[in-house]
């Protein structure tokens, strides 16, 4: 059974994740709208880079309230990015394009990072 503190931490993690995901999607959407020739993979890479900073700051100061082990956070984020791109490539292969392909990739990658963050990146 999860304690209230653990549930509250998961809620904070979700809030930061939603904000970082929104930043990711908004950045990708802006790139695809204002530079329509941009490939989804390049738009996704740029958007992921912006969301990385949002996520790092949010998780350090709101979710876990301690400094991240930066190299671990970077490693976790890069693994998340690989998952994200694997899903994106699969979605593109399946015929989706634009945000229809990017949104599921963002959501799955975000959901998979909580446990790693808690037990490895922000461990005491």
Task: Tell me what the structure shows.
By secondary structure, the protein is mostly helical. The protein has one domain (4-121). Helices cover 81% and strands 0% of the residues. Helix 1 (4-34) packs antiparallel against helix 2 (40-63), helix 2 runs antiparallel to helix 3 (70-93) and helix 3 packs antiparallel against helix 5. The mean pLDDT is 91.
Q: Strand-and-helix sequence, N→C?
A: HHHHH
Give the CA-CA distance, first to last residue. 22 Å
Shape: elongated
- Multimer state: single chain
Percent in strands: under 5%
List the uncertain runs: none
Helical segment count: 5
Number of strands: 0
Could you name the key traits of this structure?
124 residues, mainly alpha
Please render the helix and strand layout as text.
Blueprint: H1 4-34, H2 40-63, H3 70-93, H4 99-111, H5 114-121
Helix pairs in contact: 1-2, 1-4, 2-3, 3-4, 3-5
């Amino acid at each position: 059974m999860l304690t209230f503190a653990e549930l509250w931490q998961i809620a904070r993690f979700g809030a930061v994740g939603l904000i970082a995901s929104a930043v990711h999607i908004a950045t990708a959407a802006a790139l695809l709208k204002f530079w329509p020739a941009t490939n989804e993979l390049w738009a996704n890479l740029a958007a992921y880079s912006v969301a990385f900073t949002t996520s790092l700051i949010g998780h350090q100061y709101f979710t876990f309230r301690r400094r991240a082990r930066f190299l671990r956070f970077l490693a976790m984020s890069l693994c998340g990015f690989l998952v994200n791109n694997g899903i994106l490539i699969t979605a593109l292969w399946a015929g989706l394009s634009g945000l229809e392909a990017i949104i599921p990739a963002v959501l799955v990658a975000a959901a998979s990072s909580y446990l790693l963050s808690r037990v490895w990146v922000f461990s005491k």
